[in-house]
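Dear support,

We are seeing what looks like truncated structure output for some complexes. This example has two components. We would appreciate it if you could run it in full and send us the complete token output so we can diff it against ours.
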Amino acid sequence: MTEAVIIGVGLHPFGRFAGKPALDMGADAVRLALADAGVTWPQIQGGYVGSYEVANPDAIVGRLGLTGVPLRGVFNGCATAGTAVALAARAIETGEHDLTVAIGMDKHPRGAFAADPSVAGIPAWYGQTGMFLTTHFFGMKINRYMHDHGISHETLARVASKNFGNAAGNDKAWRRTPLTPEEILASPVLNHPLRQFMYCGPNEGAAALVLCRADQAHKYTSTPVRVRATALRSRRLGAFEVQSPSFPVGELVESPTVDASRAAYELAGIGPEDVDVAQLQDTDAGSEVIHMAENGLCKDGEQERLIAEGATTIGGRLPVNTDGGLLGNGEPIGASGLRQIHEIVLQLRGTAGNRQISGTPRVGYTHLYGAPGVSAVTILST
Amino acid sequence: MTTAQRPVAEGLFTWPATESAPPRLIASECADCGLVSFPSAADCVRCASRESKERLLSDRGTLWTYTTQGFRPPSPPYDGPAAFEPYTVGYVELPGELLVEARLTEPDPDRLRIGQDMRLTLVPYTVQDDGTEVMTFAFAPAEEETS
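Here is the complete output from our reference environment:
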């Protein structure tokens, strides 16, 4: 099977862009990715485009060029962007196309996500009585995790402070004001133990990748990034997942992140000990802590020491969310995972500027998690 | 004076509740594999059977985890009172049955702890314009009973 490599990346800034449609942000990201790859839109043979808010994101061809290209819309909850890149890579691996794009964009209204519970297959009373909030799950999951594994409030604050600090060095990030752990611990509690500055917010943005066959990459770039694995898993019965009115007792199983992560490592033939830089879903500071272990990057409870030592900072031995993560960038759902990959590609090329990690990173890792209990992992390498 | 009350949804818990017949959550039990589901579900997510029977859940359990709700949730779908009072929610483990997510009657997180005994109750979570209280299920710390 042919291998897929990334030859171009493009990122529209994440934030608030009054009056600018998501499709325009997406088109800007695609143009940046095409220029980065040194190709033009008519050369693209197919692709996948993801969004939560845009009903027909494939309409982006109206801004890029009506070439007749097969462009398929995808939506997979918070794993939407992971799905877009997985399918774009698969189209190359199977020989369907030689040159593809993965595109993601979104433009969410301000505030917590609000929806009719029926869209998630959940009865109306769950929303009426104030339980249909994804933030409850994140508060409850980290509260239990802190109880079981000795994680402190200070560790949550250090994670948030690190990510806002990383975002301060990223001119495409949304929240670029550094905050100290003390300032974060002084912000109001939203969902115990999580505070205002420990949460990411829905916002706007877009990202795109250009991929090609590995054996043709030399025509475009001297620094291709290999797509070593993509894996997506949904929740299993017994897993503790977002938006669950109940779950079985005595059957507690691991999250879809653990399942997707194991599958990806196996596909890649790469282990967690080989990962040089990671981008983990940090919907909140607690999620980053939990996801370090769920992705095999440490044992449960080790985060307390690792984070205190600075292991996950840009200068540490396992940098996590070097671009600021979701806390620093916000979450336009369709674009989020492609923003993660954009950062990993810069890091592996050695072109991440003031955010560049030391040494010669060879392996990068990205991870998404969200409603209704879905996780997507990609493993990339030089 | 009596205040009119109604449940937030039919088939969610036994209604009306009385002192001699305290409220119970209405679940379903798969006729083939025995999986207990709440709210009651026609289809079994373990064995895909479509045969189930009603089962009333235990009204006692232990607190598995919890969190607070510090801001008014978006409306819709939330239809609680405009004057927002922070509340708490958690998962209560009903031994041998399931873990159920519910509102908790104790709003102060410092007075909740993982593992504590809880019992089922009903609470008015909102009041309609005509004065009718809309009732939902909640768990209360069990030691409240003796105080």
